[in-house]
Specification:
By secondary structure, the protein is mainly alpha-helical. It contains 10 helices and 4 strands; from the N terminus they run H-E-E-H-H-H-H-H-H-E-E-H-H-H. Strands 1-2 form a two-stranded antiparallel sheet. A two-stranded antiparallel sheet has the order 3-4.
Length: 227
């Protein structure tokens, strides 16, 4: 029952009759989150950017957004992931690989087949978190690992606790240990091992640190490009 006699006043009266703090359900329009573009993420627009010295912070506070729209590089994501690491030999190796100019040093995938298998299997996973994405990235990069791991993906989940690999190369074993650590949370490989070139090749090292960046920032890292 309304005491007012016009539609507009009826609406006002209905609001006045609501209990304090009442929130009306429905009736509104659901808007999609704003999609940032490269132009939006121009570093010169950032509050931390200085005209003479460039960025004033060591780690970009909006790197995840810049990665998503393709404004940040894979190298930047990797460097940010390990910015607080103090292991000297590891840091030296990281700098050597990601500051060099060798062809393919910053490529997200091993090859076209790696990318194809990874992206296909991503569609089969059920709401994977970033660490699961990182584990899958490593498992699909190595033929020996993937031949065994593919049998441990069931109902959209990866179960590595019951997976065992037979004779494998040092690189395959390093990738397996890193993938298992991402998926189970159990410590499997140390920075000292990663810093040792005799234990872990440059190829395996690059894949592992890029997987670590994916575990932190998500699949957007794998769209990164060389600046």
């Amino acid at each position: 029952m309304y005491f007012t006699n016009t539609p507009s006043l009826n609406s006002v009266e209905a609001i006045m009759k609501q209990p304090p703090g009442y929130r009306q359900r429905g009736g509104g329009r659901k808007r999609k989150p704003y999609q940032y573009t490269k132009a939006d993420c121009d570093c010169r627009l950032c509050l931390y950017y200085q005209k003479k010295n460039g960025c004033a912070v060591s780690v970009c506070p909006v790197l995840d957004i810049r990665l998503e729209c393709g404004a940040a590089s894979l190298e930047e994501a990797v460097q940010s992931t390990f910015s607080e690491v103090t292991h000297i030999l590891f840091k030296r190796r990281l700098q050597r690989i990601y500051k060099g100019k060798r062809d393919g040093a910053y490529m997200p995938y091993q090859n076209t087949l790696h990318r194809k298998i990874f992206e296909t299997e991503m569609l089969n996973l059920r709401s994977p978190d970033n660490k699961t994405i990182a584990a899958l990235y490593l498992l699909t990069a190595d033929h020996t690992l993937w031949s065994e791991a593919r049998r441990h993906i069931q109902s959209g989940r990866i179960d590595l606790k019951n997976m065992h690999i037979g004779p494998a190369s040092p690189d395959s074993y390093a990738l397996w240990k890193a993938a298992r650590e991402f998926e189970t949370g159990e410590k499997q490989i140390t920075l000292g091992e990663l810093a040792d070139r005799e234990m872990v090749s440059d190829k395996a090292f690059r894949l592992i640190v890029q997987a670590a960046a994916a575990a932190r920032f998500g699949k957007a890292v794998l769209k990164g490009t060389v600046k």
